[in-house]
Here is the input.
Amino acid sequence: MTDSETAESLRVAIVGSGPAGFYAADFLLKSARPEFEVDLFERFPTPFGLVRFGVAPDHQNIKRVTAAFERTAKSPRFRFLGNVEVGRSVSVEELRRSYDQVLFACGSASDRKLGIDGESLEGSYAATSFVGWYNGHPDYRSQQFRLDSERAVVVGMGNVALDVARVLVRDRAELAATDIAAYALESLEKSLIRQVVLLGRRGPAQAAFDQGELESIADLDGVGVYLDEGLDRALLEPSHELSAAARKNVEYLRTLPVVSTAKEPRRVILRFLASPVALLGDGRVERVRVEQNRLEPDGKGGFSAVGAGDFDEIEAGLVLRSIGYRGIPMPGVPFDERGGVIPNRDGRVLEAPGGAVIPGLYAVGWIKRGPTGLIGTNKSDAKQTVSLMLEDAASGRWRRKADAPVVDALLAARGLRVVTLDDWHRLDALETEHGKLRGKVREKFYAIEDMLAKL
Ligand code: NAP
Here is the structure.
């Protein structure tokens, strides 16, 4: 086989079936020369990653993006290999032997910690696990959340913080028709939480959420969004230049009432310039000790929060830290501990941050750039990584490896039940059917065993 022949058809393994993995698959499959065969590996029997397990159940419109992914999956050169955990069921080394290129799209499966006293008390959890729980994520379905106090504190001012706050205060009847996990709905129906205090360590102009997301909470029946009484109004009139998003946020925040005027039974209260310094309580969270912050220029044109030495306490029985997702290391692949990502240059995997390129390994999505951006951000990101994969393929540096799909034989020898695209469609139909019977969009399977038992 000559090099020019080898460049005409290449086999790619993508690890992770979230938006980044599917967008990348789509770009790869659209290439005519070389032509790519794409095997997409997923540790769960179900595809779509964060669209299934991260997007809030009351954001069904966002989940419609899966229709585009299903179209990609129709290609005869695409295979879904679900229920296969790369790094466990099959090693990265084995993938490298079977595929010309390996693309990591495994996202950020863990969360960041605050690193404060009391963080591991009962009642304190990562918002990401709460999100996984209400979305029926197999890893979080059995977790218990204390919803037996009147007030919850959510640390962070991003869109995930707003998602969890909204799910905590939203009318249960409105959630009932979504694809929320039945066990989560049942717990939320018994929840005593009426107030959610969001703590932002910096000011209104530095909030990470999107204005529309906050407004959609204020629009909910029986829910009010308020500013904390102690807010220095001068922060709502910043003199420095703002990004368009920050300006929108600040303008909207100016229109919000302060909490002392609250009428609605369920409330979301925004408190800025406040950092939790300890979670206090006897065996479980009862109070959050908070330090007031001030803003100081960070020397890079922005502002950092600096503790001002004034402390107070908020009574709360539930604390969700919503301060970001974090990638986890994949055995056999370099990991940048500081950034929680695979070290890479525009998507080409590096031996270490700033180090040499490892030929044939690529990264895309959150494991490439960190846990930021909307679903659509992964499209341009995937385009960038795939363009480098094409460039490398065109350079003829990688010969097409043996035709035999070595990995299939390995998985079969290991007795793994690989979930195919047809299998997924069967599960999908069952979930939709179960949902219909309950007046819901979908009733998910939560346990991998239950899914496999249906195939
Ligand atoms: P994010 O947007 O990065 O927000 C993280 C928040 O945590 C920020 O307010 C950050 O404050 C704060 N934070 C970080 N470290 C902290 C610490 N040690 N103490 C206190 N606060 C701390 O992350 P996210 O909310 O997890 O969302 C991830 C991505 O998904 C975002 O791009 C988001 O827009 C997207 N998303 C979108 C939607 C939607 O469109 N509906 C829904 C969910 C998620 P600083 O700014 O001070 O660092």
Observations:
- The longest helix spans residues 377-394.
